[in-house]
Amino acid sequence: GEGACYWSSVASRRSENLDWICFKLISTACIVTSLKVQPYEAWWQPEDTTVSPSRKPVYSPKQIRFRFGYFPNSDPHVNQRSPEEVAANSCAMNAEHEDGNLIHFCTEKMSVPQTLEGLQVELARPILVLGGFASLQMFDRVQRQTMSPRDFYTCIQHAALIGYPLYGIGCRPSSTRRWGHEDRSSWEMVRAKSCAYCGSFVEGPPSFSCNKLLRCSQCRQVWYCGSDHQKQHYKFHKMYCAK
């Protein structure tokens, strides 16, 4: 999305840290065309005099990487986990196959400029990502807080994945296959009866599924979770609705 947001790490005396933020995508199958991360500039804090010229502190990570897949530990709705249980399992986000995590695609590590503009990457080719979740990994910290110079932070003002969902197409992780000593997850694309508005479909992980889908009452070709989603989507659907 384009709305403002804010995220901050906890304080650390060490610059070597790995932080992460997990996003739930609006569909289990998406096309991603660009990535954006904008660090937070603390305009209200004293200037950083350790750089020349001095400037307000910008709490960017040194490097970032995006991972896409299915991360059940990050979703409090899976197995009715409480926020405390989700936090207790946060370390599992850094393991590709721990506790059900399945990685479908992973970008290379990218350096982040220590500027308010941050990093925006237009992908040379759009990428198909499956699983419904994205994890932004942030490697190492570069900025000490100027009010308490011993503490390193990473703060993000805005992060975005730009692209579009693939409604009508679902995905589900198939059984994990063992090749040698490595676990390799494989993904199966399925033609799913999915809601054209929210992307929910009948077969899939619990956090993406709904109990029943209804056809468009006019053309009978498109599926919706209910009449409310049909009304919300009608301004797009009316251009090609057969009726």
TrEMBL record:
<keyword id="KW-0862">Zinc</keyword>
<keyword id="KW-0479">Metal-binding</keyword>
<dbReference type="Pfam" id="PF01753">
    <property type="entry name" value="zf-MYND"/>
</dbReference>
<dbReference type="InterPro" id="IPR055336">
    <property type="entry name" value="At4g00755-like"/>
</dbReference>
<keyword id="KW-0863">Zinc-finger</keyword>
<dbReference type="GO" id="GO:0008270">
    <property type="term" value="F:zinc ion binding"/>
</dbReference>
<protein>
    <recommendedName>
        <fullName>MYND-type domain-containing protein</fullName>
    </recommendedName>
</protein>
<dbReference type="InterPro" id="IPR002893">
    <property type="entry name" value="Znf_MYND"/>
</dbReference>
<feature type="domain" description="MYND-type">
    <location>
        <begin position="195"/>
        <end position="241"/>
    </location>
</feature>
